[in-house]
Amino acid sequence: MVDMAPKLGRLPDVHFVFVTGESYYEATKERIRPSGALESEQLKLVPYLHNMAEVLVDSELLVGRSGASSLAEVTAIGLPAILIPSPNVTNNHQEANARSLAAGGAAEIILEKELSGELLLERIGAIMGDESRKKQMGEAALRLGMPDSAEAIAAELRRLTGGRTR
Hints:
The protein is mainly alpha-helical. Helix content is 45%, strand content 10%. The strands form two sheets. A three-stranded parallel sheet has the order 3-4-5. Strand 3 (62-64), helix 3 and strand 4 form a beta-alpha-beta unit. Helix 3 (68-77) crosses helix 6. It starts with 15 loop residues before the first strand and ends in a 5-residue tail after the last helix.
């Protein structure tokens, strides 16, 4: 995002919410400031979102990591995604998670070692500029979702325990 900031004008109809995390907020803000993007209405830089569900529902595309909880949210609401799996997780499980959504047509993957501001901007522009593709990705995400997963887990636990509770 920092490398993309000076080029956001190439996607004038796209608005970005960039969540840095509390510990990276000030340094990221200082790195982006020279681009002028912080003064535009196109970029909202925040350290944390307390209303993530509301922001996701109002979004057209997610760019983010590919932890299981994030992907559960994306598939529950049918949100197309560009996933950048963290390479710093046990058994590289985020890449496996991302590949499952990509194989289902709901996401694109950019490996962190390949990531650049230019590549990310191109991928965002390609998806945001193609309503049909964006719709297809969202529908694919919905098909991959399991909104009744809590009920399924509870039923499986009841089955495994013969309905016993402690």
